[in-house]
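quick one, 481 residues, struct below
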Amino acid sequence: MIKRLLVLLLLFSSISLAQNDDCPTCPPNGSDNTEYEVIKLEDQIGYGEFVEGEVLVKFKDEINTVLGKSGNGLAVTGIASVDALFQNYSVAEVNKLFPKAKRRVDKETFTTFNGYTFERPSLHNIHKLKLSEEKQRSVFELIDELNELPEVEYAEPNYIYSIVEDEPVSPELTEEELIEWLDNNPEYKPMNSEYSSSPDGISGINNVTPNDPLYSQQWGIPACQIDAVWDSTTGDADQIIAILDTGVDWLHPDLQNKIWQNPGEIAGNGIDDDGNGFVDDIRGWDYINNDNNPTDDNSHGTHVAGIAAAETDNGIGIAGVNWLAKIMPIKVFQSSGRGDAATITEGIVYASEHGADVINMSFSGTFRSATMENALSSAYAGSILIASAGNEGVKIQAVPFYPAALSYVLGIEATSGSGNEAEFSNYDSDGPVYSSWSELFNYELKAPGVNIISTVPSGNYRAYNGTSMSAPLVSGAFAIY
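---
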C-alpha cells in the first residue's frame, strides 16, 4: 500500500491553474514583529543569520561535564581546556540542551532508501553557550578554538531558519466568505471533478467525496488520488502528525477535535505528571514562550495542520488528508516566522519522544546545523521526517535547502495544477534517487502547492501557494499508513 501511495504522489496528472502574484486585499500574517538579535554571515561565510552570542557545542560521548560557575561568575564544565576558553571569551552560561538525555550504549545504524548509511547519535552531550555582552561578536573565534579541542565533536553558531515564504492567494475569510470569493475569482477556483479518476490499473476503487463545503476546491487531494485511497482507509486515530511551526489554533472548529492529547499528563494540576520536564503539556509545547499553549500567532502552522489532518466529513470547512490522525502542535517559530536551530531541535526531540509517527517541517535554511541533524537522525528511528524544499526556485545542485535536502528527510517540491514544477519551487534536477552530493542530498517527492485552501486562526480559511503546503499533504498521506 505504501508503494502505491508513493506512485500516486509522484505520478498524478492534472490541468494548469492560474497563479496570483499579488494579493492587495490580503491582511498581514500576524501583528507581532518580534525578531531575534542576529548577525548576518554575509561578510564571513556566505549568507544567513545566527543568534548573536550563542554557540552550540557537542562534546564527545565519553566526555563527562560538571556544569557550574567559576569564582568570577563565568560558566565552567569541569574540562580544563574548555574552561580556559570560557574564561577568555567570557562565556556566561552553559546548559545541556537535553538534560534528560542519556548516552546511547548500543550502536544503531540506518540506511536510507538511496543508500546513505548513518549511525544514530547520542544527544546527551549537546550544550548551548551564551557569551557575555562584551564578547557576543566573538562567536566564530570561540567556535574555531572549540573545534580544535580533542574533547569536542563539533561547535557551531545557533543558526536561524524561517518558515517558507508562502504566497497568499486569498484573504483570510470565513467558510461562507471564501466560497463567495472563489465564485467572484473563478481563476482561483479549481474543481476537484477535473482531477478525480480511478488509479490506473487498479479496479474496484471508488473516489470518496466528503461533505466538507470547501472540499470541491481542494484540488490537491484528487490530483494525488488520495480520494481513491480513502476507499480503503481514512487513517488511524493512533497516528500522530507533529507540526513544527508557528503553533496551531487548536480551538479552530475544523481542528479542535483532532488535537493530540498527552496521555501522561493531567490538565491544569500544575504538575509535570509524566516527568518529561514540561508542566501540563497536554497538547504539545510552546518553545517560544515556554508554556503549554502552542497556539498560532502567525497563521502558517494552522494552515499546514489543516492540510494534513483537519476534521473531515464533518460538514464544515475543508477536508484533511488524514481523517483520523491527531495533530501534535509544537511551536518553535516566532510570530515573525523565524526560529533558531536549538529551539527547533528541542521540538524535534519532543515530537520523537512523544510518539510522533510523522514530523512535518514546513521551513528551510541554507546552513547546515549539526545539532539539528543529530536530532533528526535520532528521530528517524521512529518517525517519518518530511520537509518543504523551499520557494526560491533554486536547484539542489546549486544550493541545498535544509532539512529537506538531507537523505533521511523526505524533501517535498511543489507542483502546479498542470502537474509540472511550480515556478517558485526549489527542485532536484537529478531526480529523487541519484545525487551528485557525497552525502546523497535529494528532494524525493512532489505534491500540489498552488491555490491550496486550508485553515487559519480564528475559525477562518485561506488559500496559499508554497512548498509549505505541499509537505503536509504528503505528511497526511504517509500517516494514513
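The CA atoms of residues 26 and 156 lie 39 Å apart.
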